[in-house]
Design brief:
Blueprint lengths: L1 E7 L3 E8 L2 E2 L3 E4 H5 L14 E6 L3 H14 L3 E3 L5 E2 L2 E2 L10 H14 L3 E6 L2 E7 L5 E8 L1 H11 L20 H26 L4 E5 L3 H4 L7 E2 L3 H5 L12
Parallel strand pairs: 1-5, 5-6, 9-12, 12-13
Antiparallel strand pairs: 1-2, 2-3, 2-4, 7-8, 9-10, 10-11
Helix pairs in contact: 4-5
Organism: Nitrincola lacisaponensis
Function: Catalyzes the phosphorylation of pantothenate (Pan), the first step in CoA biosynthesis.
GO biological process, one term: coenzyme A biosynthetic process
Length: 247
């Protein structure tokens, strides 16, 4: 079976082919390129037999993808967050209000561990979700990511203007406005990750997973965490029983 898996996020649309259960390398497009129709249908998609997808990218991207799926003429299923799945139980009273990408990331870890864990997804936004060893989702947090933190200063603070510098992953006090902003945003993110580690220890949660486009940039600030950038795509495997026509 040849399956196309797609994770359409705010910054990137990531996709890969899974052939006979084995995933191939992840490909990605800028979400803005898809939104503006600057992407061509890949030849790799011609042999696909199923599609499993998740999207938080908005109507224009969803429309482009759904049009592509119609051309493929294969079974398609779109992921949604549920009240429970495979023993994982959602804390939301209305699960459909949860981003399906968060649910898939938790599902991927739960199916591997069957134990208490925390998932931190670091992208345009940062989400933190906690699950106990019985599979109960304990709730979570949603915060701005690194770029949104910087943009909020640029957009809301008239006196703060700067050009991006090459400061790497530095957390040292800045000696220019640019360094102060960029290092300050990293400092805030590092403090968040350290607090999450402390909170997990207090809750007896031993497993922390990092995912998302910016996860490699922050991994050193959360040394206890397992880095796995493909958690959302991995969670799409849980949709195998749900193929029910185009979503």
């Amino acid at each position: 079976m040849v399956v196309l898996e797609i994770d359409a996020g705010n910054t990137f649309v990531k996709w890969r082919i899974r052939c006979q259960g084995r995933p191939q390398a992840v490909q990605r497009w800028l979400t803005q390129d898809v939104r503006e129709g600057r992407v061509l249908l890949p030849e790799d998609w011609s042999g696909v037999q199923q599609v499993r997808w998740v999207s938080v990218a908005g109507d224009k991207v969803d429309h482009w993808l759904q049009t592509a799926f119609q051309a493929l003429a294969v079974p398609v299923v779109r992921a949604v967050a549920r009240d429970q799945q495979s023993g994982l139980k959602n804390a939301y009273q209305n699960p459909r209000q949860m981003g399906a990408d968060r649910w898939l990331a938790m599902l991927a870890v739960w199916q591997q561990l069957q134990d208490a864990f925390c998932v931190i997804d670091v992208g345009s936004a940062v989400t933190v979700d906690l699950v106990d060893r019985q599979g109960w989702h304990l709730g979570g947090y949603i915060l701005p990511g690194l770029r949104l933190l910087q943009q909020s200063l640029l957009g809301q603070t008239a006196g703060v203007r700067w050009q991006t510098t090459e400061t790497g992953g530095s957390l040292v006090p800045g000696d220019s406005t640019a360094a102060c902003v960029e290092n300050g945003c990293r400092y805030q993110m590092a403090a968040l990750l350290q607090y999450v580690e402390q909170d997990c220890r207090a809750r007896n949660i031993r497993h922390i997973w990092l995912t998302g486009g910016d996860a490699p940039l922050v991994a050193s600030w959360c040394p206890q965490a397992m880095l796995q950038e493909t958690l959302v795509l991995d969670g799409l495997q849980g949709l195998e029983q749900d193929l029910c026509g185009a979503g």
